[in-house]
Design brief:
9 helices, globular, 2 domains, alpha+beta, 8-stranded mixed β-sheet, 5-stranded mixed β-barrel, 19 strands, Rossmann fold
């Protein structure tokens, strides 16, 4: 079975002996109805019906050597990506193949992270929200509150685009930020801030942690958008004490923060990524030092964004 999809502007094919994998792909990417002349990368996945492995799944891991990348998901389920040929082959157990949520939240995002640079994308460790297709990119390490603040920004009137990973492209003179069609992930402590999780226990498992998964656009009756134009970069620095402080960030410091998270790539890929980062940094970059109730922070951030002439232009 073979199907073609699009994600972050890249066209790719998935070949497999299991319709459940294609079902997971249909829920994660945009199907391409007309067969393209060429694809940006190809994926071939074989499902072993004799493998008796069962969930819960261990924490996945990735290892690389030159242009070859190995991603392991359990003792018998793994895939190898060749970044030069942009081809991926993998073997998975029947139980893992049937775990649609795991494909949406773990396998497919990891696959795309591995291949992003080779297809001309810059991956940011960030969440993204947008207003009228103008994006606000929230950048920060794990624990900086990206997902929580993105959720609060949707309550403040913004549209949710992506959680944790944002892919940026610069093609034909146009800079775009792309999201993965995966749910927003919130940790257990989110129950203290958002009514829909209050007095509830997280039931979803991601990276070995119990979390809440939600679709904030559905909650507010907004259509989910696959891409936006990134207008403003916000680098998050979370504090224990309550407060809100926005300061302009030097482009050199912003570049260093972005490049710190990039995977090692071939020289020609690095050059292309540098060009995209240059375009990202033409817009305003801000450092946000904050702490306290996320809704109050989101309201102040929303006012700052909407009153910013560079964002509105």
């Amino acid at each position: 079975m073979l199907a073609t999809y699009m994600a972050a502007g890249a066209i790719f094919s998935v070949s497999t002996n299991c319709d459940q994998v294609l079902e997971a792909a249909r829920g994660s990417f945009l199907p391409v109805k007309l067969s393209p002349v060429s694809v940006d990368f190809s994926v071939r996945l074989w499902i072993d019906g004799d493998d008796s492995a069962q969930a819960p799944w261990p924490k996945p891991y990735v290892r690389g050597l030159d242009h070859m990348i190995f991603a392991g998901f359990d003792s018998g389920s793994s895939m190898i990506a060749d970044l030069r040929t942009r081809r991926v082959i993998g073997r998975f157990s029947a139980s893992m193949a049937a775990d649609t949520a795991y494909w949406r939240t773990v396998i497919f995002p990891m696959l795309f992270s591995v291949l992003a640079g080779s297809v001309g994308l810059v991956e940011l460790h960030a969440s993204c929200v947008a207003k009228d297709q103008r994006g606000v990119v929230l950048i920060g390490p794990s624990g900086s509150g990206k997902s929580t603040l993105a959720m609060a920004m949707t309550e403040a009137g913004f549209t949710f685009l992506s959680d944790d990973r944002v892919f940026c492209s610069h093609k034909k003179g146009r800079l775009l930020a792309w999201g993965m069609p995966r749910p927003l992930k919130l940790r257990r402590e989110a129950a203290a801030w958002f009514d829909q999780f209050r007095d509830r226990q997280p039931l979803d498992v991601q990276d070995g942690e119990l979390v809440f998964h939600c679709e904030p656009n559905e909650q507010f009756g907004r259509p989910r958008v696959p891409e936006c134009e990134p207008r403003l970069l916000v680098f998050l620095e979370r504090r224990q004490s309550s407060g809100f402080r926005m300061t302009r960030m030097a482009r050199s410091a912003a570049r260093s923060r972005i490049e710190l998270d990039l995977m090692a790539e071939a020289p020609e890929v690095v050059q292309k990524q540098a060009e995209t980062i240059d375009q990202l940094l033409t817009g305003p970059c801000w450092r946000l030092e904050y702490g306290g109730q996320p809704q109050m922070i989101a309201e102040q951030l929303a006012r700052h964004v909407l009153n910013n002439a560079e964002y509105q232009s």
